[in-house]
Amino acid sequence: MHIPILLTTLSLLPFTLSIPLISMPSIFRRQSTPCFLIGTTPLPSETLKIANDLASIVTCDASIRPLQNIPDTISGGVRFSSINFEDSDLLPLDFALTTFKTPTPPSSASLTLFTNRLNTYLSQEAAVRSIGGSLAIKAPKFFLAFQVARIKQSKGIVITDPGQTVEHLLEKVLKNAGRVSQVTKDEVTRLAKEL
């Protein structure tokens, strides 16, 4: 007689008790698409990782589209549109060399400011790749990464990623320099020794 009532009560227990939810480890959570990835072109795995890492750091302003119709990206208050290499008559690397100078020694530069600038460039590059656009952004992006590495090394911060060392990034800057003069290339090479 009491068995049907007991079974009914037991079957309703999960709905009446407050059962804590078990959250999935972050590795299993589906990340939302970064706001700056507006295209459908598959990204290289390294670029996709960078984009996903920036998803929680970089915000977008779709009312401003400074580069190839991509929303403006903002990191730590720094807007890509305020440091857009395409707004200059200079070649991309010449623009970067002029705009993203560090004091001497580089350790007195703001690592936070340079990192935020780099974040906006990294997010814009990922966006450009997602739409299959022109990659002229690579020269100033690599130069910013080079400057971040110089600041870190000058501050005594150990760089464990071999792809983010001053020496490696110097090669990347020079490889992606484009049509710049030898004077520009020599200046970048000189900076690699000024730590």
UniProtKB/TrEMBL annotation:
Q: Where is the DUF7143 domain?
A: 37-194
| Keywords of this entry | Signal
Quote the InterPro entries the UniProt record gives: DUF7143 (IPR055567)
Q: Which N-terminal residues, if any, form the signal peptide?
A: 1-18
Pfam families (alphabetical):
DUF7143
Isomerase is among the record's keywords: no
What domain of life is recorded for the organism? Answer: Eukaryota
**What PANTHER family does this protein map onto?**
PTHR37592, PTHR37592:SF1
Instruction: Tell me the protein's name.
Output: DUF7143 domain-containing protein
